[in-house]
Amino acid sequence: MSDLPALPVTFRPGRTRAVLLTSGAVIFVVITVVALMLEQLGPGERMSFVITGALLFGVLATLARVKVVADESGVTVVNIAGRRHLEWAEIVQVNLRPGDPWVFLNLSDGTSLPALGIQPGIAKERAIADARTLRALAEARSIRDPEQRQG
Predict the structure, then answer these.
(1) 92-97 long-range Cβ contacts below 8 angstroms, 24+ apart
(2) Quick one: pLDDT at residue 145?
(3) Residues 131, 117, 6, CA angle at the centre, nearest 5°?
(4) Do residues 91 and 75 touch, judged by C-beta distance below 8 A?
(5) Interacting residues of 49 by C-beta distance below 8 A, sequence separation 6+
(6) What is the gyration radius of the CA atoms in the chain, in angstroms?
(7) Is the pTM of this model over 0.70?
(8) What is the distance between the alpha carbons of residues 98 and 82, in angstroms, rounded to a whole number?
(9) Helix (H, G, I), strand (E, B) or coil at 103
(10) Which residues of the chain have pLDDT under 70?
(11) What was the pLDDT predicted at 2?
(12) Could you give phi then psi for residue 94, rounded to 5 degrees?
């Protein structure tokens, strides 16, 4: 398992993140410029334009914050609405099937956790490589019965 990356390692959808943050910044600037150029608007109306632009940027920045961080203690999944830390032993399987929008982690309690930090949207090959790396890390670090691993 010498081909495994050194920990900690962070997986995030780089291209998608760049598109979201760039789009958010452009939207904010355009809305702000429009607010300043419209002479018939009062100060309160201009401020509402700027606030709307900032809110749109904030939404896109929130969408861009998703990531998966693997370290010695386990995996931290940061999704849109929350963050969850998992011990390595809690991860039973790392799945990225054809057509899946992102990686799903099957957990020892029988549930599944989406990991939006690895998604094949814009960079499919990168997502597949990241999913394989996370799967290899989970298999190498989780404490399981050797017979269970073969079956």
Answers:
(1) 92/142, 93/135, 93/138, 94/131, 94/134, 94/135, 94/138, 95/131, 96/120, 96/127, 96/128, 96/131
(2) 44
(3) 60
(4) yes
(5) 31, 32, 34, 35, 41
(6) 20
(7) yes
(8) 26
(9) strand
(10) 1-2, 143-151
(11) 55
(12) -110, 120
